Amino acid sequence: MFEKIVGIGVFKGVKREKIALAFEQVHYQIREYEAENIIAYAGDTCEYLYVLLEGRVRGEMVNIKNQNVIVDDISAPNTFAEAFLFATQNKIVVNIVASTKAKVILLSREEFLKLLHLETQILENYLNIVSNRFVTVAQKLRFLTLKSVKKKLAHYLFGLDRENKGKTSFLLGKTHASLASLFGITRPALTKNLLELQEEGVIEIKDKQVRILDKEKLASY
């Protein structure tokens, strides 16, 4: 079990032996779910840190058309719902569903606190994960204020250009799927607009490297 946990973000940098020793000092549950079983419902109080050992789970919500919309897809090994655990309003906002047969460790808030005190690296990792989630949400809110896909792309690409100052090209930094999620659009819409920017001579994408050819035009969107 602990071999699988070592690669998870919250346990990054902690040796398997230390993780095993820490888990010997806390109480936890291991539950198994069949595909399409509900692990937690939207509105449930988040009482556990969920550690996904095997399988895949997804977060989904119902839109105004009564359709299920997948907002997150998580593969083992990983954790989920960690950002809600210590919130004042610690209600889970989406249904968490097993996409495949899944095995999950459940650590209560109190037992996870013990784990954080036992191993400071786990505490540092947890704070890093929660902080990064906040940054992602802030970025998404920023992109939501930009109306067109090209405006979103321009803002994102200029940000990468500043981070890679002095370089003629840079990596896109995210998969099309994760970038589309950040922008709040579909993957086909993202791909279509990237192709249009290339056809218009604004950017060039070669060997996964992006080069801005016409900064003035890109800024005009």
What's a concise summary of this model?
The protein folds into 2 domains: 2-141, Jelly Rolls (Sandwich); 146-220, Orthogonal Bundle (Arc Repressor Mutant, subunit A), CATH 1.10.10.10.
Summary keywords:
alpha+beta; 2 domains; 221 residues; four-stranded antiparallel β-sheet; Jelly Rolls; 40% helix; Arc Repressor Mutant, subunit A
What would you note in describing this structure?
- The chain is an alpha+beta fold and 221 residues long.
- It has two domains: 2-141, Jelly Rolls; 146-220, Arc Repressor Mutant, subunit A (Orthogonal Bundle).
- The chain is built from eight helices and eleven strands.
- The protein has helices at residues 2-5, 16-23, 109-118, 120-144, 149-163, 176-183, 187-199, 215-220, and strands at residues 29-33, 38-40, 48-54, 56-62, 68-75, 78-80, 95-98, 102-108, 170-171, 203-206, 209-212.
- A hairpin with a 5-residue loop joins strand 4 and strand 5.
- The protein is globular, with a radius of gyration of 20 Å.
- The chain starts with a helix and ends with a helix.
